[in-house]
C-alpha cells in the first residue's frame, strides 16, 4: 500500500509540474508557456528584463501623485477609421498594424507619438489576463496602443478591458477575423473598418503615467506608459474568441499551447513615481 501511495504522489507531482507547459514554445526565442523560455526565465535570457524600471506594474491609486498641471493626452487621427490593416498572430499576441498611411497618434507635453500597432493581452476562461493591475485587481484584458516619436521614443497607451453583459461593437472588426489567425504566423487583412476612437474608453485623456519598459523581450526601458483611468468593455462571446487562439502552428496545437495568459507578471516599482492626470 505504501508503495502505491508513493507512486500516486509521484505521478501527481509529475503531472502538476508538467501542466501548463507547451513544449513547442521552447523552440521560440521567448514564450509565455515554455518551460525553458517563459517569463520566469526572461531575466536570465535577456539581461534588460532584470532592469529596475520594468513593466507591467500594480497601480495603487492611493499612492499615485496627482498633478493638476499635468496635461491630458490628445489623440489625433484616431477619429479616422482604419480601412486597411493587417492582423497577425505572431505566437505572442494578436497584433493589428494599420496600412492606410493615415497619421494617427497621441500628443503628450507637446511631443507627438505616432501609432505603430495595437495588440492585446488576455487570460483564460477562469482567470483574467490584463498586464497592469489596479489596486491589485486584474482585469480580463488589456489593449496596448504602441507609438513612437520622430526621435525614436516609445509611448504605450494601455487600456484595461473588463467584462460586460453585451458585446462591444468596437471589437467586431477584430473578432470576426480571429478564426483566420488562430495559429502562429497566420495573418490576413481586416474585412471591416476599425474605429480606434471606439476602442478607447470614455475620457481617454486621463491616465496613470510612469516610466517603464516593453513587457516582452528585449524589455527595453525608457518607455512612457499611459494606462488610461477609464475602462473599456468586451462581451463574453468576444473574449471567448481570443481564448481560442494558439501560440503555435496548427500541427503543434494542444490545450497547453493556447495563447492564454500572455501577460507578464507584475514587476517591482523600485521607487518609481506613478502620476495621475486630472
UniProtKB/TrEMBL annotation:
Pfam families (UniProt xref): Carb_anhydrase (PF00194)
InterPro entries in alphabetical order: CA_dom, CA_dom_sf, Carbonic_anhydrase_a-class
Catalyzed reaction equations: hydrogencarbonate + H(+) = CO2 + H2O
Superkingdom classification of source: Eukaryota
Gene3D superfamilies: Alpha carbonic anhydrase (3.10.200.10)
EC code(s) of this entry: 4.2.1.1
Domain Alpha-carbonic anhydrase, chain residue ranges per copy: 28-278
Signal peptide segment: 1-19
Claim: Acetylation is one of the keywords in the record: no
Keywords, sorted A to Z: Lyase, Metal-binding, Signal, Zinc
Single annotated GO MF: carbonate dehydratase activity
Keyword S-adenosyl-L-methionine included in the entry's annotation: no
UniProt family annotation: Belongs to the alpha-carbonic anhydrase family.
Protein name: carbonic anhydrase
Species whose genome carries this gene: Araneus ventricosus
Amino acid at each position: 500500500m505504501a508503495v502505491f501511495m508513493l507512486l500516486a504522489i509521484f505521478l501527481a507531482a509529475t503531472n502538476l509540474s508538467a501542466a501548463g507547459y507547451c513544449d513547442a514554445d521552447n523552440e521560440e526565442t521567448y514564450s509565455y508557456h515554455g518551460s525553458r523560455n517563459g517569463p520566469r526565465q526572461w531575466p536570465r535570457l535577456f539581461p534588460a528584463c532584470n532592469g529596475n524600471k520594468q513593466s507591467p506594474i500594480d497601480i495603487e491609486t492611493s499612492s499615485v501623485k496627482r498633478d493638476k498641471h499635468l496635461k491630458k493626452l490628445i489623440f489625433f487621427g484616431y477619429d479616422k477609421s482604419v480601412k486597411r490593416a493587417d492582423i497577425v498572430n505572431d505566437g505572442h499576441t494578436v497584433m493589428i498594424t494599420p496600412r492606410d498611411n493615415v497619421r494617427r497618434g497621441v500628443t503628450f507635453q507637446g511631443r507627438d507619438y505616432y501609432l505603430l500597432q495595437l495588440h492585446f493581452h488576455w487570460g483564460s476562461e477562469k482567470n483574467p489576463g490584463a498586464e497592469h493591475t489596479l489596486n491589485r485587481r486584474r482585469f480580463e484584458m488589456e489593449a496596448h496602443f504602441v507609438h513612437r516619436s520622430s526621435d525614436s521614443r516609445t509611448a504605450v497607451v494601455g487600456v484595461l478591458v473588463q467584462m460586460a453583459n453585451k458585446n462591444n461593437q468596437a471589437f467586431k472588426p477584430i473578432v470576426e477575423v480571429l478564426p483566420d489567425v488562430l495559429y502562429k504566423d497566420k495573418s490576413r487583412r481586416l474585412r471591416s473598418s476599425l474605429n480606434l476612437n471606439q476602442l478607447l474608453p470614455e475620457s481617454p485623456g486621463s491616465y496613470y503615467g510612469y516610466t517603464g519598459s516593453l513587457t516582452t523581450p528585449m524589455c527595453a526601458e525608457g518607455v512612457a506608459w499611459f494606462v488610461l483611468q477609464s475602462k473599456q468593455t468586451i462581451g463574453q462571446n468576444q473574449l471567448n474568441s481570443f481564448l481560442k487562439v494558439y501560440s503555435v502552428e496548427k500541427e503543434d496545437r494542444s490545450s497547453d499551447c493556447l495563447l492564454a495568459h500572455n501577460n507578464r507578471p507584475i514587476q517591482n516599482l523600485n521607487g518609481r513615481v506613478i502620476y495621475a492626470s486630472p
